[in-house]
Amino acid sequence: MQEAAAAAMPLVEMVGLEKRFGGVRALNGATLTIYEGETLALVGDNGAGKSTLVKALSGVQPPDGGEIRLKGQPVTIPSTRDAGALGIEVVYQDLALANSLDVPGNVFLGDELTRTRWGWFSVPDDRRMLQETEATLERLRIRIPDPRRPVGTLSGGQRQAVAIGRAIRKPDITLLVLDEPTAALGVEEVKKVLGLIGTLKSQGQSMLVISHDLEHVFQISDRIAVMRSGRVQGVVTTKDVTKTDVVRLIVGDIGTGVAA
Ligand SMILES: Nc1ncnc2c1ncn2[C@@H]1O[C@H](COP(=O)(O)OP(=O)(O)OP(=O)(O)O)[C@@H](O)[C@H]1O
Ligand SMILES: [Mg+2]
Q: Cβ contacts of residue 176 below 8 Å, gap of 6+?
């Protein structure tokens, strides 16, 4: 971690984030730095605060206290639109796809490309949306044989690719956040999605990936942040630790030398 941290720029810094729900302190001084170009895994038991941390970053539920900095500048993220404007894109576990629409329809959902017909009225530019969708899928090295099919008929892995495609379509994505990208997928599909994450990583995309699956976490991440009781209890460099070390951090049996 030391060498990586020294070489890379802090991209997103979350400092002392607080979030209360009645008596529950979902975030209790959570502090985490994501470096440019890294794949940072976020792990922790149910209720540890992972989703709440991501929602603070994505503008879904702004924190009650603490500070978020983007490339060193303090930012406030009061809405998902503000997160989008800052280049923070989140793919949620339920994917939120429109099942009756085709692949380009989902990739460009709410953000359609249009062209002008007869010089004055504007119609959807289906050809360009299809072309750009195909270019995006190519970048992800994912093949969907017929992108005109409703996404409700696609496989789980293909649907995950469509949701990621929608998030990374824009040219200026600062941080891609994936919430349990391999949950509820078959073995072959998991391989494809892990491969897709590897492809993005090789292209320099900075990513924060929430996962319960330590096997996958070890395959894809540069570092692993462990949350417990609303705090980031430790951040470790993946290649320097074992799964046992990480499990210890998750359950709170912290050995020496691995806690941040
Ligand atoms: N909207 C809410 N209202 C009340 N309590 C909430 C709300 N959202 C989260 N919490 C509580 O905050 C704590 C952290 O929840 P969070 O969803 O962030 O955990 P998590 O680490 O994502 O867990 P999981 O792995 O189960 O998804 C939990 O105790 C949860 O019950
Ligand atoms: Mg969660």
A: 89, 91, 164, 167, 168, 200, 205, 206, 207, 208
* Statement: the pTM of the whole predicted model exceeds 0.85: yes
19 CB within 6 A, ligand 1: no
Task: List pLDDT tens digits, range 33-53.
Answer: 999 999 999 999 999 999 999
pLDDT 10s digits, 121-138:
888 888 999 999 998 888
CATH of domain 1-87+175-181+188-260: 3.40.50.300
The ligand 1 atom nearest the CA atom of 54:
18
CA atoms within 13 A on the CB side of 153: 11
- Structural domain spans, the chain: 1-87+175-181+188-260, 97-173
Closest residue to atom 27 of ligand 1, CA basis: 46
Q: What is the 3-state secondary structure (H, E, C) of 110-133?
A: CCCCEEEECCCEEEECHHHHHHHH
